[in-house]
Structures are given as structure tokens and as C-alpha cells.
Amino acid sequence: MTMQAKLLERFLRYVAVTSQSNAAVKTVPTTEGQRQLAELLKNDLAELGLVDLEISEHSVLTGKLPANLPEGHHSVPAVGWVAHLDTVDVCLNAEIHPHVVKNYQGGDICLNEEKQIFLKVSEHPEIEKYIGEDIVVSDGTSVLGADDKAAIANIM
User: Fold this and answer.
1) Predicted structure pTM score
2) What is the spatial distance between Cα 131 and Cα 107, in angstroms, rounded to a whole number?
């Protein structure tokens, strides 16, 4: 499987977890989906070889990637990656139904035929920059949650 295919597979698994924030809740995390996403990520990190994995009471996930320095090298600077687990709640459907538009050819994209929801070039001309590319979209009834879950997939 190519790196691009692995990245897409991870991203689609992560967006499938409903993790919208709830402004009415004053605790962190604000929804159970955020806890579930932290658990999923913990399992994925363990499979990647990270150690000392912990999820705090606030669903902050931490872990370490053991060093693999060549003999004689004692230390290198550490790097930390940070991303948030929640997605914005814009009062749309909490269930996310992503799909991939393969080899986008330009023009409007039908997100949801039943509800006649389209991503229109007239409203979003920037999509034409991606002609020939694969594009991940929602079905138009929910947010995709791409801001944070794309970052998480890249970190992974």
C-alpha cells in the first residue's frame, strides 16, 4: 500500500468517529466521541511502536517513540506533535459520511443526490485547482472535520 493510500485510509477511519464538540458541556472532553478517538489513536500509536502511551482524564494522549540512534550518538532534539480531537459543531448531522471523488475533472460535485446538495464551483472556485486530484468530501449533511483529523492522520 502506498503512503498516500495509507494516509487516506487513516483519515477516513478518523473522520468516521463522531467527535463534535459540545459548547454546553463545561468538561473536557465535551463528548464521548473525543474519548473514543483518543483510544483509537492510542491503539494505532502502539501498532506503530510508540511506548509509554497514556490518555489523561481530559483525553490528552501522550506517548514516546523510542530512539533508534546509531552507535555513538547520545541525543538529538525531541519533537512534539499536537493536534486536537474535537470537530466543530455547526448543528449539522453528527454522523459523517465521507466519500472520495477520484480524479476530479472539474465542475460542480454532487455531495448528496437524494438531498440535491452540491459543492458548486460558482461558490467555491478554489476547487478547480484540484483537477486531476482525488478529493475527500462529506455528503453535505455534516462537516468533514478535516482540519484536525487531516492533521492527526499526517502525524500518524
Assistant:
1) 0.85
2) 9
